[in-house]
Design brief:
44% helix, 9 strands, alpha/beta
Length: 304
Amino acid sequence: MKRSRKILAGISLLAASALALTGCASGAELSGKSGEKLDNGDEKQITIAVFNGWDEGVAASELWKVVLEEQGYDVTLEPADVAPVYSGLSTGDYDLVLDGWLPITHKSYVEQYGDKIVDLGAWNDEAKLTFAVNEDAPITSIDELAANADKFDNTIIGIEPGAGLTEVTQNDVIPGYGLDQMTYTTSSTAAMLTELKSKTDAKENIVVTLWRPHWAYDAFPIRDLEDPKGLLGDAEGIHSFSSKEFETTHPKVSSWIKSFKMDSEKLYSLENAMFGGEKTDDYGPIVEQWISENQAYVDSLTAQ
């Protein structure tokens, strides 16, 4: 048995080594260092990382994909969890991400990789981490939740394990409000939204970790719980971050992203168009239709 385990361990090590080599190769492909340039001096290929389940980032990334492709770029969107994205930006495997939350949610990642990535600025300053409940829930504040846990199936429904919201919930909110006896489930934003729809359709109580801006506030009868201790933090900015070399390889796009602004009303409009109807993975036609209805705004994104 021990010999078999050693053999299996050896096979696993070889497989891991091969995967690492493959990862290095794919990283080079991701960063698009083909050398091909556009007339404006930018490299043609761009890889934008998109946080799994973060719809505002998906929306912004899909919008910029269409905008940049119309300018002649080849744009690849790469879904990934938060931690690998910041790591990938620091090594140049990704060029850009449009969904960095500061000063709280992604603080630890920015502190870890800050000298190897570039903050291109905030495009929305109305972001907020929240605990949301059905609008007719029997409580109004997080500090009432522990005493009423049984009315919420003793469960808090979370999102991805690697998300900044998850980290804040685990490290600050749960101990700070004495919620340690409740079950805190984490899997994905999609799973959380499915459960949210199911419970609100059935007119049952539910508490989920959520954030603003998010289209769920328009789609479901929900409201935020007050956070009297301020453990979820104040309103944050949604920042764009790039790899260290991006400003050199893509000076024009860097200038556009630095000037990018999108208020929550406009963002909700785009998100609702993309996520509020029938489920699809092909957002291109939806985004193009939204652009046609917001042409002056979209034209301004690349005007300078």
